[in-house]
Amino acid sequence: MKTAVIVFPGSNCDRDMAVALEQVTGRAPAMVWHRETELPGGVDFIALPGGFSYGDYLRSGAMAARSPILRAVSDAAGRGVPVLGVCNGFQVLTEAQLLPGALMRNAGLNFVCRSVALTVENSQSLFTASYDAGETIHIPVAHHDGNYFADAGTLDRIEGEGRVAFRYADAVNGSARDIAGVLNDAGNVLGMMPHPERAIDRAHGGTDGLRLFEAALGVLA
Amino acid sequence: MKVNVYVTLKPGVLDPQGKAIHHALEGLGFGGVADVRAGRFIELDVADDTSDAELDAMCAKLLANMVIENYRIERP
Fold it and tell me: What is the ipTM of this complex?
């Protein structure tokens, strides 16, 4: 299993993501700088990490979504390669229009940094197959711009298509319908504000995030 | 040529920053404010022959996020 982590100027969870991928696959991921125009050959999982790419200039994720490597990521996503965007990575995926909606400033204007309870809404996707539908899991969030917005028609459509992967069990940031994670229409791109890579070791306080990587990377426990 | 671009949140999109500014204005004793919406102003210095279509493309592709924002271009 060959994995890659895309690194932007201002990414700060790229190392945590690499640790998670290596822990699950036994192999260190390729760290791919945003200026690259191609992914390493044969990559079968791509992660866009959290952080503050380009200092959140213009809008969170806006500049990163227009960086050269995103064209390659978009092509790979179109071929069905799994792409996981966490936090800033989720913002980048919406800005790149690989996922619907947008992530706005938290409703309370506060940076929210704590473990939150999530409800698994879709347990059929390649990322969530290790969870039970309706299961409550605990994963940390750390963000300022996690307030998911999409128009009502889009929300109805993605809900109807089972593309809401996770929902906050309690309101966290003002997100429409408490949406915490969204899948693309093909189901191979997942964006989520909570950080599964920060819940892969008992010392983290929980391992609910590990199961996402185990499912997505084909090493179901 | 200097071109002014105003990026504003679409009607109906909640604006937490506008709300906070509104609240702060009230805290300063300015009671007559019904609502506040915060946006972004971008000044472009472009070639004189830049077309409206090019400016529109700049706004739609980068300067505004069309999911949540509208833009208005003001040419000299």
Answer: 0.88
A195 is catalytic: yes
Number of domains in chain A: 1
Q: How far are the Cα atoms of A51, A179, B64 from residue A48, in angstroms, in the given order?
A: 10, 19, 22
Chain A residues 87-126 with a CB less than 8 Å from chain B: 94-95, 100-102, 104-109
Contacts of A37 (CB under 8 A, 6+ apart): A68, A69, A71, A72
Question: Which residue ranges make up each domain of chain B?
Answer: 2-74
**Is A34 among the residues known to form the active site?**
no
The pLDDT of residue B76: 81
Query: Cβ of B42: how many Cβ atoms within 10 Å?
Result: 17
Q: What is the mean pLDDT of residues A156-167?
A: 98
pLDDT tens for residues A33-68? Answer: 999 999 999 999 999 999 999 999 999 999 999 999
pLDDT in tens, B31-71: 999 999 999 999 999 999 999 999 999 999 999 999 999 99
Closest CA to A5 of A39, A35, A37: A39
The CATH code that applies to domain B2-74 is: 3.30.1280.10
CA atoms within 13 A on the CB side of A180: 26
Residue A47 bridge partners (DSSP): A5, A84
